Amino acid sequence: MRTSSLIPSFQRPPSSVVIRRAANYEQDLASVIFESLAVFDLPVKSKTVLLKPNLVGLDPLGVMNTHPAVIAAARECFLRLGASHVYIGDGPAMDRDTEAIIESVRLREYAGKLKGVFVDLNVDDVERVALQTHASRLNELQLPKTVLGVDFLVSMPKLKTHHWAGVTLSLKNMFGVVPGSCYGWPKNVLHWAGIDRAILDVAAVTRPDFAIVDGIVGMEGNGPIQGAPKASGVLVFGTDPVAVDATCCRVMGLRPERIKYLVGAGTLLGHINSFKIQQLGESIASVRNPFSVLAAFQKLAE
Amino acid sequence: MHTDAEISFVEQLCLPFLRTAQNSDGGWGFHPGSLSRVEPTCWAVQALASAEAREPAESESVARGFGFLHAEQLPDGSWPSAPGEPSGGWVTSLACCVLGAAGEADPIERVTTGLNWLCRDWPRDSSPWRRLLARFSSQREIFPINNSYRGWGWTPGTSSWVEPTAFALLALERAGRKVSASLVTKRRRLAIALLYDRMCPGGGWNCGNPAVYGVPGEPLVVPTAFALLALRNESQRSEITESLKWLEAQIEKIQAPGSLAVARLCLTGYGRTSTANAPEFRSLLARTEFPNNVQVMAWICMAISTKYDGHRNSTLPWLFRSPRPDCNPRAGNFTGGLSS
Question: Cβ–Cβ of B293/A181 closer than 8 Å?
């Protein structure tokens, strides 16, 4: 569990975010990811790492969930960096049969045997944890012991629009650690707490150490489930998930400072201001590819 | 139909797995060695009892499982989803179903307080105040649902969803005289209406979103099976026929043992026994490397132990059975279980 104090953004040094092009899932993603991780000198040697992809539901077309090729390549890279164990874990929100989702996305075909590797966070042992922030009225949450116990947590979302929150990226992805066996399918208590506020509280208590966003094919329109595929051809990396999400928004042609939860996150969890984010790799302008959004979110467009 | 190979699979793999996964406190976690929780304990108890005709030695395990459930009940009558959780949730329905249908004398009081808690647990989304607000909300265009219907949520003070509503309906079938009959009737009527309202176009259910922003929701196997089991007394309705047809069409495509078990359990309960094209549990488990999930193993035991002998309902696990005609709810008994 992240017990260190939250640091106000004005006291934080600038964050670095790497954007890399990746045209499709068939290319050598491990090389792209390994080179990108090398930029950050991550402290993962002999540490346990949990990759938290975005596995939402049955997805035979590979549009809704983080692609298994990205997950498998990331796992390979963290092992190459000397991690003692690299778990993959998620608690899908819409379907309690996680195994059916794993099969539908063909995770085993890419990542190999999952016994001892994949953790279904919906049915993991849990511990009741006091939230460090009080953006919502949740105050406490049951959280999986695997999430609380690992040394290094990596949020691996898909680049998607979201019909309630505007976008779902590395911060919103952390909703997936909230266990369905306690809160149901979907995790409706988070919606009643106010999605924007709950995103802040869950992100603040879990505090992902790193983010890798699968934007090779994202989702636009009525995301996160019923939207349309959007080929963007990028992977985005960073140690500051807020800066990563803000960068992703700009790649999507959306204004992060108009997304409620990102504005809140920009005060305590990281940076959203572009002058505090050092962009490495590709420039935003070179990969910018505006996503269509629902009418209710037109105000987010640049 | 169940083959000898399946029965032997249950006896040689599933039952020993469940037996050894039981914790010293009498409960089961979701995995061997994990902390006992109400939900996997309910499924494991039900699975062992379903197989009891062939495995009478399971009785002690079942009794210890009941002991865990007794100990976990909160003072307000509900059951918590996890240790240390101060308030109850949807697993209250499951615990009431399992304890209530067991026909033991001791749990009757416990089940009554549990059912009373369930009857008081109204979802927040459909309160009169919320319904008034919804009339002026733009969201009524987004979710084309009738919010005058009311079921149950996963946790108190939230919205109605399909699975918790289905389990509450099953639990309330056994409500005795200590639970207000008029309240039970009202809640069941509203909940049944809610399930039909939340059905996906063309049959089947997902978590409870038949459409969002005009896009029809896709049904899922597990919620469809549980909703159908809760509505099994309405088998003549066209919605049920449609949903059964959808579920039958999925059988060949199911790739996970948990979904397959729940689907087969449901279809057998409706007398649809032609599951010849369904994948084999053994091969699914071998491929998916997930033989360590207590809930899935319990569902498999229940699916294989359930036989259709021409009398709908008669050999379903007791959790899903209608109370027997000789069960007099006014007398407060909850029989309908093991002996039939």
Answer: no
